[in-house]
Design a protein that fits this description.
mainly alpha, 73% helix, 0% strand, globular
Length: 162
């Protein structure tokens, strides 16, 4: 792992990456533990905050500007922000299943797809993880997309969302 691309990155990229790492780490802990206690609520607040910072900070980062400084990946940021609002609204209204499904969908789709796109050759995370072997990122993306696809089919067949 080569940390130099992160160390020399602009502050908004560093904030974005740190928030994303927090969200990626806390996500499975909070989304898949059995107990829905005070720890779940506290971790949930932290997770929602980390997702919001990740999504909002993405608008300060431009790479492939298709519409001004924005690219298609920014659609995922809008979707994550909308999903966070929906998920919080669901739990406040007592719709536990909808809350759970929404939060899990955000974790797997917004972070899964966006995370995989960071592995494209030429991207900062690709360079940090694979160095000169940029093409390895394409194989990881293919495996990740296959896993997301299998998860979607499995969820659809069992009647669950996310």
């Amino acid at each position: 792992m080569f940390l130099e691309p992160l160390i020399v990155a602009p502050v908004q990229v560093q904030v974005h990456l740190i928030a994303a790492i927090i969200a990626l780490t806390l996500g499975p802990i909070n989304l898949y533990r059995r107990s829905r206690d005070i720890a779940h609520k506290v971790l949930g607040y932290i997770w929602v905050g980390a997702v919001a910072v990740t999504a909002l900070s993405s608008f300060l980062i431009s790479g492939i500007g298709i519409i001004g400084p924005f690219s298609p990946i920014h659609i995922l940021s809008l979707w994550a922000l909308w999903g966070m609002w929906q998920g919080v609204s669901h739990i406040r209204a007592g719709r536990i299943h909808a809350h759970s499904a929404t939060m899990r969908a955000i974790y797997w789709w917004a972070f899964g797809v966006a995370g995989l796109l960071t592995l494209l050759p030429g991207r900062r995370i690709n360079g940090m993880l694979f160095g000169e072997r940029e093409v390895v990122g394409l194989f990881v993306i293919a495996i990740g997309l296959a896993a997301l696809g299998l998860r979607a089919v499995s969820s659809w067949r069992s009647g669950r969302q996310s």
